Amino acid sequence: MTSTARVLRGAYLTAGAVSVLAAAAGPRGDRFTRTVKPALMPLLAASALAGRRTGARPGAVTGAVAGVVAGLAGGWVGDVILMGPDGRSADSRTRARNLNRGSAAFAVNQVAYITALWRKGHRPQKGPLALRVPVLASGVLTAATGAPAALPAAVGYGSLLAAASVLAADPTVTGRHADLHGVGLGGNLFVLSDGLILARQAFLTGQKPLVRVLDGIVDGLVMATYVAAQLLLVEGLTRE
Fold first, then answer.
1. Do the Cβ atoms of 56 and 87 come closer than 8 Å?
2. Cα–Cα distance for residue pair 158/195, rounded to 1 Å
3. Hey, where are the domains in the chain?
4. How far is CA 155 from the centre of its chain?
5. What is the pTM of this model?
6. Distance CA 99, CA 152 (A)
7. The predicted structure's pLDDT at residue 2
């Protein structure tokens, strides 16, 4: 990793930490969220671009990085959508529509990761697949019972997210390449992050004091797992 990439990585982690604290603070932290969160994906993309090894197959590296960076652009759009005022609306249907729009943008992110994983030799294996099918089913059930308006996100985006996680956990690849162990963890953290978003959408609605406190805690966990997941995936998939 180049010195520029290290600085950008540090800036990403700092912005991520601020975003986690702002999310956990609830509405009081929204001003910081609107300032800092939009910088996350550009910082991570810049870090990936700066971290390319000059001596390692320039064409292949550029292609891998370009695909991941394109996916991060979708993630940036999703971040902007989800941090909007509709994300904290007291109306569950408004929040669900916001989630569906954000998930459509994040679908671009997941497609980029699926493509990059496939190109690196990752394939679906029975073990990871068997573990993630119940997780996807539980997400769909959660949406169907607690937030039916969010079913497009749970089914459509959830399927892409599960597919990326299955590929990232391919033991036949990660077992041969220690550098890719973080990719599997990143895929799992992404599933956890978005599962928490769905649970928050389904169960933490209304303006009661306890609900608002729990909502902030869960939102902070969403950001923490998301920041870590993106970093692990990007660094693993853009490394030669």
1. no
2. 9
3. 3-237
4. 16
5. 0.91
6. 9
7. 79
Q: How far apart are CA 111 and CA 123, in angstroms?
A: 15
pLDDT average per 10 residues of sequence, the chain (240 residues): 89 97 91 94 95 51 82 96 82 88 96 95 94 94 91 95 96 71 92 92 79 88 97 88
Rounded to the nearest 5 percent, the helix, strand and coil shares of the chain are: 85, 0, 15
Dist. CA 150–CA 144, nearest whole Å: 8
Q: What's the DSSP call for residue 61?
A: H
pLDDT score at 60 = 45
Q: What's the rounded Cα separation, in Å, for the pair 103 and 27?
A: 22
Nearest residue to 107 via CA among 163, 63, 66: 163
C-alpha to C-alpha distance for 175 and 46, rounded to whole angstroms: 29
CB 234 within 8 A of CB 73: no
Q: At 148, list the tokens.
A: 């039916």
